[in-house]
Specification:
Blueprint: H1 23-31, E1 37-41, H2 48-63, E2 68-72, E3 79-80, E4 98-99, E5 104-105, H3 112-128, E6 132-137, H4 140-147, H5 159-166, H6 170-180, H7 192-207, E7 220-226, H8 229-246, H9 248-257, H10 272-277, H11 280-289, H12 295-322, E8 327-331
Parallel strand pairs: 1-6, 1-7, 2-4, 2-6, 3-5, 7-8
Helix pairs in contact: 3-4, 6-7, 8-12, 9-11, 11-12
Length: 332
């Protein structure tokens, strides 16, 4: 009998070292102007929202005043009506004010330029009122846009161009993008959605004068919520099953048929392809609702996709560290 061969399992990336976070020291740094923003980041299911709320409460206790406010850095929690699938968990915030959630309609294509602009507006509002901003989220690109002063182009979406680009392979799209701009790293094309948007921007910039943002970088104290891959994946699976039981399928179905309360008063349905565009929960549940997947296929493929997404998030954050950004990782 031929001896079976097995593909070796790649070793897990080593976790960064954990630190004890000294909240009074961080607050002192903020009050004396050494930092001007606190950021809590981490992959999905790492407990960052709960940690950010606890951090806000600790700050409020020290100051004996309600001063800490949270700004979301999540690329999908901006959408009204997309609650269970994006894990807004608004009940966790209780008395802590939050910003940049439920600010645009489901079905629209909110982009990084708009997020950077809206972040600056929320940040200025919080600081002008003498309060303390805490940025919290897992979207690495949004976090960097908010904190690193990226100069971003204002380029409107072009549905016709996107439709044409969707017909091309990833290789063709990357080659086209490379012909229009230098590709310094793969962040422009680590997902097909981002690749098409990057090409849309590059094509527009080649033909039109473009207004760019010019916001200053923030002196940010970054805190990373640290969990092992095994614990993270267990949490993802438990949370996914809980969300399915809470009515995530019904929520997404009501967006498709236009009955969701967030769509009032017009009750305009959100096309299935728009929900698929948002990825993860909205992609796989929509494929189930349109009959392309069974329930079990949807659940299992979605769990795998979220595991992979969390891994990519950690890869992004470790990449931020390689660029010189100091992240203070802590066990939660």
């Amino acid at each position: 009998m031929a001896k079976k061969s097995f593909t070796p399992i790649p070793p897990m990336a080593e976790l960064p070292p954990a630190e004890e976070i000294n909240v009074p020291e961080i607050l002192e740094k903020y009050l004396n102007g050494e930092i001007d923003l606190i950021c809590v980041l981490g992959p999905t299911a790492s407990g960052k929202t709960r940690y950010a709320v606890q951090l806000a409460r600790q700050i409020n206790t020290i100051l004996q005043a309600n001063k800490a406010e949270i700004i979301s850095a999540d690329s999908r929690q901006v959408y009204r009506g997309m609650d269970i699938g994006t894990g807004k968990d608004l009940n966790e915030y209780e008395e802590i004010p939050y910003h940049l959630m439920d600010i645009v309609d489901a079905g629209t294509k909110y982009n990084i330029f708009e997020y950077q602009r809206d972040f600056e507006k929320a940040y200025k509002d919080i600081v002008d009122r003498g309060c303390i901003p805490i940025l919290c989220g897992g979207s690495g690109l949004y976090i960097e846009a908010a904190t690193c002063g990226y100069s971003l182009p204002e380029v409107p979406p072009d549905p016709q161009l996107r439709e044409e680009l969707e017909k091309k392979s990833d290789e063709e799209l990357i080659a086209h993008l490379a012909s229009l701009k230098p590709l310094h790293n793969n962040t422009d094309y680590d997902t097909r959605k981002r690749l098409i948007r990057a090409l849309e921007i590059a094509i527009y910039e080649a033909e039109h004068p473009v207004q760019r943002t010019s916001f200053l970088p923030k002196n940010t104290y970054y805190i990373g919520t640290l969990v092992t891959r095994e614990v993270r994946n267990e949490r993802i699976d438990r949370r996914l099953d809980a969300r399915l039981e809470e009515g995530m399928v019904k929520e997404i179905s009501s967006l498709i048929d236009g009955t969701h309360p967030a769509l009032a008063p017009a009750h305009k349905p959100v096309p299935a392809e728009d929900l698929i565009y948002y990825g993860l929960e909205y992609k796989f549940v929509t494929l189930y609702l349109t009959g392309e997947l069974t329930f079990d296929q949807m659940r299992n493929q979605l769990a795998t996709a979220i595991h992979q997404f969390a891994k990519r998030q950690m890869t992004w954050f470790r990449g931020m560290e390689r660029k010189g950004i100091c992240i203070h990782w802590t066990n939660v």
